[in-house]
Amino acid sequence: MTSEGASQAIDQAVIDEMFGGCMPKQEIQAQAFLKEHPEYDGRGTVVAIFDTGVDPGAAGLQTTTDGRPKIIDVVDCTGSGDVDTSKVVKADADGCVTGILGNKLRLNPEWVSPSGEWRVGAKAAYELFPGGLKQRLQKERKKQWAEKQRAAVADAVAAVVSQARQAKAGPGLQPAEELKKQKEEVEARVKLLSELDEKYEDLGPMIDCVVWNDGQRWLAALDTSDMYEQGSGKNLLADFTPMTNYRAERQWGTFSAEDACNFALNIYSEGDILSIVVDAGSHGTHVAGITAAHHPEDPALSGIAPGAQIVSCKIGDTRLGSMETMVGLTRALITVLENKCQLVNMSYGEATSTPNAGRFVGLAEELVYKHGVVFVSSAGNAGPALSTVGAPGGTSSAILGIGAYVSPALASAGHSIRGELAEGQQYTWSSRGPSPDGHLGVCVSAPGGAIAPVPQWTRQKRQLMNGTSMSSPCACGGLALLISALKAEGQAATPARIRRAVENTALPVAEGSSDSALTYGRGLLQVDAAYRYLRRSAELDVPADLRLEVSVRRSDSAASKRGIYLRDPEDARHPLTFSVDVSPRLHEEADIKSDRLEVEHKLSLKCSAHWVKVPAVLLLHHNGRGFELELDPTCLPEGLHYTEVQAFDATAEWRGPLFRLPITVIRPLDLDAAPGSSGGSGAVVRADASVDFGVLRFQPGDETRRFVAVPAGATWAELKLRAGELDVPTAYMLRATALLPHTRYSSTEWRSHNQFSSHQEYATSFRVTGATTLELTLAQHWSSLGGSALSAELAFHGVQATPEKALLIDGAGAAAKVQVLASLRREKVQPRAKLDTLHIPLRPAEAELAPLGTPRDTLWEGRVIHRLLLTYKLSLTEGGQVTPTLPMLNRYVYDGELEAQMFMLFDGNKRQLAVGDIYPEAVQLKKGECVIRVMLRHDDAALLEKLKGMPMVVERKLESAVQVPVYTSNADSIKGSNAVSRERPLCKGERAAFFLGPVPEDKLPKDATPGRLLVGSLTLGLTSNSGGNGNGGPACPAAQQLTYLVAPKKPEPASNGSEGSADGEEKKSVEVRLAEALRDAHVKLLKELSCDSEEERQAYSELQAQLLASHPTHLPLLLERLQRAQKAANASAGTAAGEAQPTDAAGSAAAGADSAADSAGGSSGTNSAASREAGLQAVVAAADGVIGAIDTIPLAIYQAQKCPEEGPGAAKRKKDMEAQKAALVEALAAKCGALLKLQEAATASTAAPPPAADAPATAEAGDDAAAEPVAPAPAPASVPADTSTGTGTDAAAAPGAVSAFEVAFRELRCWVDTAADEKYVLLHAKREALAGRLAAAYKVLDKAAAPEDKPASQEVLEFRAGLLQQLGWSHWERQQRRRIATSFPAAYPLF
């Protein structure tokens, strides 16, 4: 080698050393191991990554060190990328298929489907994209949008200027009124553009999907052209290279150059489901890179096991912001076995109520113990307090929980901190053990940060991330090296052997500190030492899968646990004895003679703590043994104490412990001690239930724990901190933690992350539970350099209420009495009670239980997963923030019993409004009808059967909380006077009573119906943080839940006789009443005839003729004829044009004129224009019949009355007049709709080519309805101006004539405000558009497009899209049509 080449090599070595900390390997001996055994670099191992998904195009994730594909399978286990492709279509003669959205999709002529069947579906791109990518694209698309918007505004403003010049230059050419209308329209367009821009919402592009079988395999293609400008010709369906399941051919694609988002495809259920696999975030790719990235060009940045292969199991649901779901986790476990993985890494986790329990934990145990898969997971990022390990990593026996360690090299190269760490340490936020049942929690630790690959859509190759999410894949990569070596050497690589080797060879860190094991676990993973241990112990590890399971039970208790954990004050006050059971566990198929009978171990039991006594030896056989343990905590000083009982092979102690029993004892500071006394930590106890911890000193990463016995009766605590002299602001993590049975630590923990400057003071308060041990943890953040000091004081307060937990107020009963006690000191009390949430209970309207049966939903051993689909109907009389909850299931994640509890919320058009799961979130809803669908899953169908009637509680947040009055006496509560409004003192030991409620009925929300519950809170005490004014401070954090049971409503006042009274009315004779009853019965029968058969049609025709001859002016009969004519016309029009059916009177009339019904004379095939016209003429004739039967003069006089009529018969006259008006308006609306369609049809057949968009047109004459058509508009058909009725449709009417539609419309407006009444605004808008007032037409539909109590109708939205098209605003038209596609799905989406 030349001197220059040697210099370059040296330089590269220096650079590798400088930046080696970016991907830590040396700390866990991986670097040394690979140097000595380069062929054991993970080859032959397959690692499943349970995470957000892995980008198949990411740097370093293409091939292994021996040239094999790096990622062998990519699966979306959550279903968030599923597309319903069950709709089967055929190609037309042009080689096109109709997509699920009604658009034409051209197929590639080279694609072959022997059956001729093509399955279609669609997916919104934003439903696939991760949140970070979606935000970036929205910003970029907004810029492109702004360009189009500026151009449209410029054109609109130019039209205003042009119109003004035209008016100024030639005022005599057009009437002044016409010029005014033109001006109003062009100005309205400018204003409309501005208003539209304020409401801009980027719904994102749609992706069309086509699936087919080519005779050998299922294939799929995507059309992503909607991601580009319309007409660009980019990314059309025919240009897509068909893809099949990723595992089969390892294909992946990119949606577009702009997003750079890669995806894979999988096809399920015989083509009915297409899964588009997109990562839900960059986290999963980063994790996979730490484990197994291979960078041949820069080996220093390669992952721990570059020879390993990866299976991407996406468990983070994109619909939930990448939250894991039990569906995703269960399918991921199935995928592990399908791909024969040896390892699982799961960098996910949650706090749990019950450790080592739940559906997922049980399945994971089967995966590990039955199928020999090594499962590694993050311990959690909730430290530095004790017992903050998360599930499943830190709380499950079958899973190795990994803590996060930061070395000086990682801090320097990875985090680029400004100084140097003196030594390696645990990240401050890394979760600590033990678990609530005494298990150690953290198995081992590994470096918890790295600069590793991220998805291409992030626009960078690599990124720094830190967390136990990073330490877990680091450890997993180390275990992949071990398994690679064991497989290559023919050794057994069982989970039991791997765990024992890792734990017994880990490098201890911070030995001698009481919390070392709880922080680091057994220490820092050491790959090379574990490998040497495995080779040495190979002959002794027989059977290879043998593990020793330990449980311990306190002798005066029945509960078995995995360790001893004495935490509460009472636990450490007496000597205790425990029964310990040790059970050897083998594979369930282990042979009795060769395996089970051979299990016999001579164990030496050891414990270094003088306060623990155990037997010296234990001869252990297959059926297990037990022994007694004695523990005397009374001799221990205040603080944390940890030890273990370790069992060694007496014949080979070098193997290390074969099992360990962790023992954690906490002796809290007792505040009942004499005032002024000091605890072992130097804290000074005060007489007022407070403690002064003095000055606490810190270095980076230092933690100070103080354990205090919370006095009985305490309900909240107040913490005061003061910083010392600081050179720079210093960051601290502050925690106050207590544990309660079957309760998450996060539910009882107060936490804060603060930065202090010199001498800065900080005060806070938090809720506490009496007779528990409170751990106060103060930690200087590891990266906050320099020494520091804090002084700390903690004071307990107590205002106890009886009942202590939840308080129920019965709205139908007396005021609820609450007894209050100041238990610790003099307190200031001011009761404040409020109700802020309404609980709406629901039962399922439908319940469907069925087996899933597909391979991805079938567990090992052929166990089929069943799905229970529950449908709830929700009716809201008031809108607001609404949260659907399943109280039986919510917040139970890994300790939950079911595999799924997802819900989807829909409006009446099946448009999805929200998706929720374990942690349901509030969604803003309008009043109206909604549907909530819930999916539950389990392989036990009998269990699901029991849940078919499971109630749901919908929580509606009240816009304004209901204040519950609080009184000092029952008498005041009865009178409703002298409610408590001021604070009052309570001396220590003093009691007081308060009376809550009742709440006045007029203060309750309208939907608080009898029997429903209103929920809120009651606060009593005031904090001492008064700001120096002598008064009490804010309400204390110790609030009680308050529940109010709504009482029956008061009866309505009796009528005074003027309403509904028949006094004064002429009594009808029996003959008249009989005749009317027969008439009404005949009309009712007429309405019930469906005319489905020839016999019914004949009977209907004859009966209608008879009734009309006998009762020509009977309104119900005439309305029935009108409605039947409309129905016939609508049916024919819908059949011919495939239109959506109208949803209201005006819409029905307008839409019904598209074509005539077959029964009106049309052929059974395509309806001709003549038959459509006949059908519309029938509607007009029927409407005229109703109009003619009503004497409008008396009706107008009655409607004009300013004061309601009173006296005998007033109620009947009011009812009759209201019925006449309703019939008249319905008839006029129907007539207008039919005439409008007739007019449009006539115009379409005779109209000349439309004028240019900026060319003026002739306005109609008349009232405010006349306007200058500024945009293209058809010339109206007309009739003479004095015609009051008729059906004239002459398109070539004389100038100045008024159309028949206009005449009818003006009459309609005499009776109803068509511009304001939601039923008629569409008709009004069509009239505005007919006159060329397109902006006015669009604007008048604002309320109809977003009604308060129901979803918008498709007809309204389609009409608006047409207006935008006529206005030439293609960008707005495209957005409107995108909204239509979203608002009216063909079916409910897949779970």
From TrEMBL:
Please report the stretch or stretches of sequence annotated as the Tripeptidyl-peptidase II galactose-binding domain. Answer: 698-786
One of the GO biological process terms: proteolysis
Q: Which Gene3D superfamilies match?
A: 1.25.40.710, 2.60.40.3170, 6.10.250.3080, Peptidase S8/S53 domain (3.40.50.200)
**Residue ranges of every copy of the Tripeptidyl-peptidase II first Ig-like domain listed in the record:** 558-666
Catalytic machinery residues: 51, 283, 469
**Tripeptidyl peptidase II second Ig-like domain location, by residue?**
823-1008
Q: Name one GO molecular function term.
A: tripeptidyl-peptidase activity
Positions of region (Disordered): 1049-1069, 1133-1169, 1245-1292
Where is this chain compositionally biased, Low complexity type? 1278-1292
Under the heading Pfam families, the entry gives:
Peptidase_S8, TPPII, TPPII_GBD, TPPII_Ig-like-1
What range(s) does the Peptidase S8/S53 domain occupy? 42-520
GO CC aspect terms = cytosol
Keyword set, alphabetical order: Aminopeptidase, Hydrolase, Protease, Serine protease
Catalytic reactions on record: Release of an N-terminal tripeptide from a polypeptide
Which family does the entry's similarity section mention?
Answer: Belongs to the peptidase S8 family.
User: This protein is called what?
Assistant: tripeptidyl-peptidase II
Source organism per entry reads: Chlorella vulgaris (Green alga)
